[in-house]
Amino acid sequence: MHSPLRLYGRSGELAILDGLLARLWQGDGGALVLTAPPGLGRSALLREAAAAHRPRGPVLYATASPDERGLPHSGLHALLTPESLLARLRERGAARPLLVCADDAHTWGPASRTALGLAARGLGAGSRVAVLIAADDGAAFAGLPALRLGPLDEDAASALLDRLTGGGEGAGSHVRRLPGVTEGLDRVVRVAEGLDPVVRAELLREAAGNPRLLTGLTRHLTPDQLAGRTPLPCPLPGAEGVLAAHADRLDGLPAHTRALLLLAAAAQEHEPAGAGADALLLLRAGTRTGLPRDFLDGVLFGSAATEGFLQRAGSRVHFSYPLFARAVLHHAPPARRRATHELLAALLAETGDRAAASAPSGDRPAPLASLVQLACAAPAPDTALAARLEAAATAPYPHGERSSALSRAAALTTDPPLRSARFAAAAEQAALAGDPDRARALLARTGAAGEQSASPGLAPYVHGLLALRTGPAADAHAALIAAAALLGPYDPRRGLDALLGAAEAAWVTGDAPGYLEAMGRIDPAPYDRAFAAYRAGMCAVLAGRTEAGHALLRQCLDPMNPADPAPAALLRAGVAALVLGEVAAACRTGARALAAVRTRGPDALLPQALEHLAYAELRAGLHAGARAHALEGLHAARRTGQPNSSVHLHAVLALAASVEGPAEACAAHCDAALAGAGPHGLAQPATLATWARARADLAAGRSEEAAARLGPLVRPGPRQGHFAARMLAVPCYVEAAVLAGRGAEEAGELHAAVAEFAGWTARTADPQAPAQLARCQALLAQAEEADARYAEALAHHDRAGGDFERARTQLLYGQWLRRRRRTREARTPLRDALVAFQRCSARAWAERAAGELRAAGEQGPSVRPATDGALSALTPQQQRIARCVAEGATNREVALRLSLSPRTVDHHLRNVFAALGIRSRTELARLLGPEGP
Predict the structure, then answer these.
(1) Cβ distance 241 to 252 under 8 Å?
(2) In this structure, which of 85, 366, 522, 892 has its CB flanked by the most CB atoms within 10 Å?
(3) Predicted pLDDT of residue 904
(4) Dihedrals phi, psi of 537, to nearest 5 degrees
(5) What is the CATH number of domain 865-933?
(6) Max alpha carbon distance in the chain (Å)?
């Protein structure tokens, strides 16, 4: 298939070229050097500029010819053929602008490069000639304006991959058509049903943002391989051309430089991706191979250059472009490459003998690194080396390093069942390292479903772990239950983790029987007392034996070995504290769990640790801290590829925004949480997000909408909210229903909800629950009893602390007093509520309290609205009514929102129209809209 060329991810570079051409067409020339390693599209950009200019004037386009590189002035000859020279003379006579494009100019001879550079430097205003030069680097054209191309970002590379596999045209902002130019992609559209996600991730990882490499890799795969029906070859074919183009630059380098580049490339093989190489290791290796010490010191620790290949960052040495390292290894003779790996293995083994294997850092000099280097040197499968790698990978190394070692062990293994088991173990470590794409790619190499494995159940276990963080939770529950049955007889630790994962999956879906099934399969005998108490306590609570369950859960609030507890044990203790309502203990334990995860890992657990801490802080009224931790957790979830964790964290952020605002942030987080929760069956974040939006409605005075959202969550029925969050939403539901005027028509449901909440309050240790219960009872009480109930609620708040919940009770109390014409008494609780809301940054709630104060006759500057022109002539009550009507509320809705009668609203609205000189609600909406005051 031949199709128009499209450029992806180059909008900024194209804009710069457009600017150069625009100046040329206005009569001003100039020059620009496009520098980039091979494959990043510098030639495509030149062709784009040439295609854009041809309708306006002639183009001189020359590219390097491999056969003529050694000829003097070959570059100038390519530019100034008789035809080109004639065209240039004609152009001078016609005075049309000329564009000169010199592609791969770094390969031209010195004389040609010098002449071209001198000519380009002489161009400027009025010259009517522009020169575009494409080169590997700009050293040969120093002094000219230069633009360096970087790799494509993930979105652009993904759009290009869609194009290459017939999956779509890609994102519009990343694509630009080049009219009249063809790509020569003769095997583009081959997979009608789409590209397998695992294959997609592996191709994007391997290409590293290089469009030419991505094209080559895709072209060499079969339709079945692209669709995921057959395994990918390892290594992936199609990279040879790009690597060879990179390696061409090596031939002209000094021998010392080439030797050091080979050492640096080989030394990266045992490091995590992107970590570079250890400069001290390179110094020792270079000294051992006879490289001059002054050369090594200059490159590794001084200012000596390596032709732009290497960069230093502290004690680490990095290649300026990742493919350079692969090109160096690919270009080296096999015998020399093996000798380099063996030398590094020996040096690392010497260091490992003197250092502890458990030293914390990616720079750890330990035996595992030595074994990885030996694996790189192995010319053929090696059973003994594979066994040594597998044994070493059980030590407490970072999970990413262990995954790399296990995958190399698998590659050295000839026995298919053992090979599959080692790839599955490598996938598990990649998942724990927060790299789910790599984990799926490794799982794809374990063999077909049902194929024999030395570790039955391990691959399903890893599939279940990935589904727990990235897929439907019900799928994760089923996969982990099945994996636990296979793992139990020979791998009790993973069997336990599988059952705990299945229980977690059931919890987030709101499946209490599924949770009890998973936890019921765990034999607590081999584990410590705290774990046994946790298991029994959680099962008792979900089975309805709350008192017994709470007694058991109190035994696991402080995990065993408090000096150095495992992160998972601390997270379980935090869950127990939240179930008990011990929110202060949950905050303390959550902070300890977060510190443990940061110190010991795994990286995949970081979003969950931040989520648990943020939720505990929400329960404690620490909304700013919860927001900060949830935002960090959201970034960590995206970085580690855990969309389900992102859903939970969006729900937490929605709850924080329902207090702090703005309303747009709350709505956006709610939408994000619900969009992810629905397809994956995540009932818990769906309940929290709905509660958050209802609480934001309450803050804005939209009690009818809030009651409609919360009613299904707290009532019995199929749409009932998550069992762990239902009771938390009851106070908001009662408040919304009463303020919306549903107290009489839904009295039975409201009293039933409050009775259930009273039972929960008697069992929980949550310090806010008694105050919230008294507040609900006050809302439903008769006039003579409500006063006492509000006083009781405020007394409970005094003991519990927390500005936000106390301020909500004061707001409702003041509103109740004002509604009963006790205006002077109402001002004190309303003023206290306003100050408390301001103190905890609850802006929307503070505005609601200020409105109530204005209605009660308060005229201080802290409650005066920002008005302008005629609006300042309205009374506070008229202003509130006008704003509600401008938002589209009916008179009845305004009456419910402001606790007035419809007749009073109608009376005030007529006065508003008269004062503002308008005659309709439409004119009022226009006056108070974005263009009005």
Answers:
(1) no
(2) 366
(3) 81
(4) -65, -45
(5) 1.10.10.10
(6) 106
